[in-house]
Amino acid sequence: MSLFRQLWLAVILVTLTSFIGSFAVSMQSTRSYLEQQLHRKNIDSANSLALSISQLSKDPTTIGLQITALFDSGQYETISITSPDGTVVAERAQDRVDTAVPGWFIDLFPIQAEAGRAQISDSWMQFGVVKVVSHTHLAHQALWEQTETLIIWFLMAGALSGLIGMLILHRIKRPLAAMVGQAEAITERRFLTISEPRIPELRSIARAINDLVRRLHNRFIEETSRLEALHKQIHHDPVTGLANRDYFMSHLRSILPGEESAPGDAQSGILLIIRLNNLAEINRKLGHTGTNNLLCQIGSLLGNVASETPDRLAARLNGSDFVLIIPNIDNAGQFASQLTLELTALSPQIDGEIADFCHIGAIRYQHGDKTDELLANADTALATAERQGINAWHVITGQSGNSLMPAANIGDWRHFFNDALNEDRFKLVFHPVIDPAGAQLHQEAAIRLQAQRDGDWLAASDFIAIAARLNLTGPVDLNVIRHALEPLQSQAGELAVNLSIETISDWGFRNKLAQLLSQYPQLCRRLWLEVPEYGAFRELEAFRDFCRTFKELGCRIGIEHFGHHFREFQKLTDLGLDYLKIDASFVRGINQKKNNQRFLKGLCGLAHSIGIIVIAVAVQNEAEQKTLIRLGLDGVTGPGVK
After folding, report:
1. For the segment 601-637, what is each residue's pLDDT rounded down to a tens digit?
2. What does the alpha-carbon distance between residue 236 and residue 244 come to, in Å, rounded to a whole number?
3. Taking 70 as the threshold, does the pLDDT of residue 48 lie above it?
4. For residue 337, which of 274, 281, 284 has the smallest C-alpha distance?
5. How far are the Cα atoms of 166, 227, 377, 383 from residue 334, in angstroms, in the given order?
6. What span, in angstroms and rounded, lies between the C-alpha atoms of 439 and 432?
7. Using CA of residue 259, residue 260, residue 263, residue 265, what is the dihedral sign?
């Protein structure tokens, strides 16, 4: 029984007990009072009648008239005169009197008043004894009226007490409800504080819980800061703040194979290598501090270029070489030319301008390219730029291409999508995600598109970027959810589906998804919905509302390709996330990278402290799998998972 029901029951029991006690005492005292009054009336009437008869002649007619005169008033049940030898001289009796008092009430509260007696004298002799018994109907009538009054007052007092009790309980319930909500938020990995209530007992509880939440939140922030510093130390160049060579190589390997790239990653782009010339001469003239300031300016310039979209990356390969990955760009030559102008503007003015400041080599990439071949071609482009002259750039326009991709412009792609949606040329392929014990945690569903009838099936990374440009991710994701519901209805187990951030931020399609899933509440408990990390931070408010809506439906919510925006992780602590999928760039070669192991171990501990499970993707071999499980990850998936 709930606390409030118990309080209400206590209020009702106290009220009823008070009423019953007050009613019993009042009825008993009133009945006793009425019996005393009737007894006195009987005595007075008997004395008056005896005195009147004593002064008159004692013939039967006179006596009868005297008794009748008193009896006809209707207030008496019996009036009798008895001689000294016990003979009844005269008697009047009335057994029944009509009354409005219910019979059950009369039986429940009987009134028994003692009869009044008086001596009748005849000269100096005793003539007889008069006995008077009054009717109790008037007393019962008075008692009944008092009972009605008591009941009315009780109902009024009960209603007033109920109103007061309701107000008091409501006053108690609000802070209790807030504390319950706070406790539920903690279980959902959200840290909320509440205002302290005025009730002293509840105030102490609320203060204690608030202190606990603050300590948990502060500890989380401290751990996040520590891991952020470790992340920066491991993956970033200490001088420029850009990504270092190891991070760049891991990222490049993760975006080139189509199966491992994020659905939001571009299908192609350009890779630029920027080389600073005469760095040793610059260092000799500017000194260590001045050279570092120059490198910081270059790093800031390249970092600003990379920050324009979340899928770009700027890195420092070594002392004089920098690299940029720019997806979704058409005119690579124009971009390289503009970047060259901006870089040469930073050229130091020392004993005249250093004319030959930098060279840029660029090459187009497409997922499916080989990493070593791509980098070799990029070096060739850089060497060509160096032979072309001062501050030159060169772009290798040839590209490997993907035989699965239909050669088409953006207009043709719109027709491909419309036809595929109308004819449902979509399907899902499933990859198992297992826990450390080897049991299946869930299946990860990857979408495939047949752009042309009887054509090959394209991976998500081949077409999602184009769908986003055409504002068609909503219909595609809606189709994915419909396909995902089919195996959930026919098979056991749980299923994870990736959604585009464009769909999350589109209220119309997101509401359509919610309406669709609301029809299958049992299936929602087995459905895992995940959003790419860059999208979750880019549309944080939309993602926050998405988490609230779909968690209410019973779905699990997670973030995939996590790790690139780790410094902002604390923004997600109040969303109630269920899981994180670590980006492949942190997983590749984890068995050989001690620093990455430290980072992932700390990340697992931090996530586990707020109830979030951590899953690694793109696991290549058994050595990586064993290392990840040893570090505390809750699940792994990839081509090397057995």
Report:
1. 999 998 888 889 999 998 989 999 999 999 999 999 9
2. 5
3. yes
4. 274
5. 74, 39, 20, 19
6. 10
7. negative
Parallel, antiparallel, or unpaired: how do β-strands 556-562 and 527-532 relate?
parallel
CA angle 404, 636, 583 (to 5 degrees): 65
Residue 218: is it exposed, middle or buried by C-beta count within 10 angstroms (0-12/13-18/19+)? exposed
Give the pLDDT of residue 353: 55
The 3-state DSSP class for residue 114 equals coil
Cα distance between residue 433 and residue 435, in whole Å: 7
Which of 240, 404, 370 lies closest to 317, judged by CA? 240
620 bridge partner residues: none
Lowest mean pLDDT among 210-224, 240-254, 383-397, 477-491: 210-224
Residue 349 bridge partners (DSSP): 353
Q: Is the dihedral of CA 526, 539, 367, 268 positive or negative?
A: positive
Candidates 585, 588, 593; CA nearest to 566 is 585
Helix (H) or strand (E) holding 53: helix 3-54
Q: Does the pTM of the predicted model rise above 0.70?
A: no
As a whole number of angstroms, the distance between CA 45 and CA 77 comes to: 13
Residue located via tokens 């060579």? 245
- Spatial separation of the C-alpha atoms in residues 642 and 638, rounded to whole Å: 9
The structure tokens listed for 321 are: 């070489």
DSSP 8-state symbol, 56: S
The secondary structure of 624-642, three-state, reads HHHHHHHHCCCEECCCCCC
CA distances from 446 to 432, 481, 497, 504, 613 (A): 11, 11, 7, 18, 21
Residue for token pair 């990860």: 444
Could you give the angle at the alpha carbon of 516 between the alpha carbons of 514 and 522, nearest 5°? 90
